[in-house]
Write a structure and sequence with these properties.
Elements (H helix, E strand, L loop, with lengths): L2 H5 L5 H6 L1 H7 L5 H21 L1 E6 L4 H4 L5 E3 L1 H10 L4 E5 L2 H10 L4 E3 L15 H10 L5 E4 L4 H5 L3 E3 L4 H7 L4 E5 L2 H10 L3 E3 L13 H8 L5 E5 L5 H6 L2 E2 L2 H11 L3 E5 L2 H10 L4 E3 L13 H10 L8 H20 L3
Length: about 350
């Protein structure tokens, strides 16, 4: 980092003034003493974004100083990639994990896509390889492969169609077959199987955040709080989903809070999402079961700033792989268009 930039990372009155609107927005979730550390980075990143014609795409699981402080677009992994494809920018900084940056590159091949830290991986994406899918096709000839978007580009490229947690059931049923191979999340696959008559062949992949939740834990949260609304992500085990009042994707969970405005809510997913949503709904009390994703937390304001300064680390996807992976994603999006979504 240059001395010029280092000097700019003091919390000066000018920085305080520049970042005041953001500070007011996140006051309930970021203490003043922490904001004094974050604000100089926020100001420096905003300036570098303008110079680089760059945007920051931040996943729902990023910390509030990133999610509300420097992100141009926020959401789940597919929504971010789609926003990146639509926006007129030369550079995309993906504040998320590596497979998300790959998906952004697949949908925006002409843009430079950066991941601020190469250690931002994913236990679920790492649970399956392209070779695994080829072996599954040999074992189950003719059975279509439905693959969750939380996977590498190589895995998507070996798939017939992708899905999200929100549209997984619709995608499976759109194929018009009696049996599918569903990869790689076992718990999401079990949820899909419970919602359809299609036979679902599962893979034992798990998200290390969601698999740690238990039904017993949720029962303990509900004890003495009969008005508590429990929202769970379908990547959670079945006993967790059985205790939940609502099961849905991150976007669906956010919508549910906005529609119902519960007095108290627990979002059974990565911890930072509750902090980010709480900013939007100050009248709702968020009970926080704080399971953090160690991979998401590799992304920090200093690393985003460094990525923009050095243009590292660029994410590159082999064009042949990208073409096949994009086909699987586009077939999924066509299902949504047919259903008017």
């Amino acid at each position: 980092m240059s001395l010029e930039v280092a000097r700019s990372l003091d919390y000066t009155p000018e920085v305080a003034l520049l970042t005041a609107p953001i500070r007011d927005r996140v006051r309930s979730v970021i203490p003043e003493v922490e904001w004094a550390v974050h604000a100089p980075y926020v100001a420096a990143i905003q300036e570098l974004k303008r110079r680089r014609n760059a945007v920051v795409l931040a996943h729902n699981y990023q910390t509030p100083e990133i999610f509300h402080g420097v992100a141009d677009f926020t959401g789940d992994s597919l929504a971010l990639a789609q926003q990146g494809a639509r926006v007129e920018a030369d550079v995309i900084v993906l504040a998320g994990v590596h497979f998300m940056a790959e998906t952004a590159k697949i949908l925006s091949p002409e843009k430079t896509v950066l991941i601020p830290d190469l250690r931002a991986g994913c236990s679920l994406a790492a649970s399956i390889t392209a070779a695994d899918i080829r072996l599954l096709r040999e074992r189950y000839p003719g059975v279509p492969v439905v693959t969750y978007v939380n996977t590498s580009a190589e895995v998507k490229a070996e798939s017939d169609i992708c899905c999200t947690s929100a549209n997984a059931v619709a995608v499976v049923e759109s194929l018009g077959v009696d049996r599918v191979i569903f990869l790689p999340d076992e718990y999401l696959g079990q949820y899909v199987a419970s919602q359809t008559k299609v036979e679902v062949i599962l893979w034992k992949g798990h998200c290390e955040v969601h698999e740690r939740f238990t039904g017993q834990e949720l029962r303990a949260y509900r004890a003495g709080q009969p008005d508590l609304l429990i929202l769970a992500h379908p990547e959670c085990p079945q006993d967790v989903l059985a205790e939940a009042d609502f099961v849905g994707s991150t976007a669906a969970m956010i919508r549910r809070v906005g529609e119902t405005r519960p007095r108290r809510v627990v979002m059974v997913t990565e911890c930072s999402m509750s902090d980010n949503v709480a900013v939007e709904f100050p009248d709702v009390e968020f009970v926080r079961p704080c399971n953090l994703c160690p991979h998401m937390k590799q992304i920090t304001l200093p690393r985003i700033l460094h990525a923009l300064e050095t243009m590292q680390h660029e994410v590159v996807v082999d064009p042949a792989v990208a073409l096949r992976a994009r086909g699987a994603v586009e077939r999924m999006l066509a299902v949504g268009r047919r259903e008017g979504k």
